Amino acid sequence: MVGLQPVFQLKNKDFGPKVVGGQAVSLEKYPFAVQFFNYGSLCGGVILNSWSVLTSGHCFESNQDTDEMRVQIGSKYIYDFSAKKHKISYFVVHENYNRKIPFENDIGILFVKEQIKFSNVAKKGILVDHDKWMNPKEKRFIVTGWGMLEYNGALSDMSLMMTSLAFVPLKTCSRLHDVTLSADMFCLYGDGKRDTCKGDSGGGVLWKGRLVGLTSHGDGCAKEGKPSVYTNLYYQTGWIKKQVAKFIEWTCKNKNKGQSGAGNVVTLNFNT
């Protein structure tokens, strides 16, 4: 997650997770969670299918050269040498990202060169297919990440972290931040004690086992009265399907030219 500032830049000493006010969890519990390294910057990501990963649009601001990008799957720590590293074929950021409102349509998709092999630490997430979760009565949204434990603070050497947050109506969130928020955003709050933080951007938000969002931005981390803002995946369902369809078309053309590709194996999960 970012404020109005660049993506968190890793330095040699900055190894480790996390989420503010969270607890360490095993990757087997959240196997859709991956790490996205972009020219020294760290973001989270979500396995969409065996060829693609969802992440935040702002995670590409530091670099657009795919040779400098890697997706790391099955990683317990920031630099886990046992994790599988995937090179990137190409990526796409929402065409209306950051156009009228800061962080509007904060979403991108990475397409990997080598098919992701599913295991107990690598599984595709299931996207929500309704908006019933967008309710202030909902108090348990699960967020995960490998980012900072506190704003501008030290990083832990622990594993993947998680915490739970409560839904905040968009109008209330907009008033608390005194900024305009767009319909593709939603807000969560952890009573000023729990939150996502730098390095968590692009990580998934779970509600009853379904992915509803991606970590986007906020005003610091775990500030009292300051909910964090997330990308609404239900709102972006049409865009996601469109980009995957384009990828299938692209790979089929390459396959006909004798190159390897995804062919017709790419599927999406929008199961209830």
Structure description:
The protein is mainly beta and 272 residues long. It has a domain at 31-125 and 235-256: Trypsin-like serine proteases (Thrombin, subunit H, Beta Barrel). 10% of the residues lie in helices and 28% in strands. It is built from 2 helices and 14 strands. It has helices at 170-177, 237-256, and strands at residues 23-24, 33-38, 41-49, 52-55, 69-73, 84-86, 88-93, 108-112, 141-145, 161-168, 185-189, 204-207, 210-217, 228-232. The protein has a 7-stranded antiparallel β-sheet, covered by helices on one side. It has a 6-stranded antiparallel β-barrel with strand order 9-10-11-14-13-12. Residues 3-18 and 263-272 have low confidence and may be disordered.
Shape: globular
CATH class label of the domain at 31-125 and 235-256: Mainly Beta
Q: Please bin the fraction of helical residues.
A: 10-25%
Order of helices and strands: EEEEEEEEEEHEEEEH
Largest beta sheet, briefly? 7 strands, antiparallel
Estimated structural class: mainly beta
Percent in strands: 25-35%
pLDDT below 50 for ≥5 consecutive residues: which ranges? 3-18, 263-272
Computed Rg: 17 Å
Strand order, main sheet: write it out: 6-5-2-3-4-8-7
Judging by the overall fold, what is the CATH architecture of the domain at 31-125 and 235-256? Beta Barrel
SS summary, helix count = 2
Q: What's the CATH topology name of the domain at 31-125 and 235-256? A: Thrombin, subunit H
In total, how many beta strands?
A: 14
The end-to-end span amounts to 28 Å
Could you name the CATH homologous superfamily of the domain at 31-125 and 235-256? Answer: Trypsin-like serine proteases
Mean pLDDT level: 85
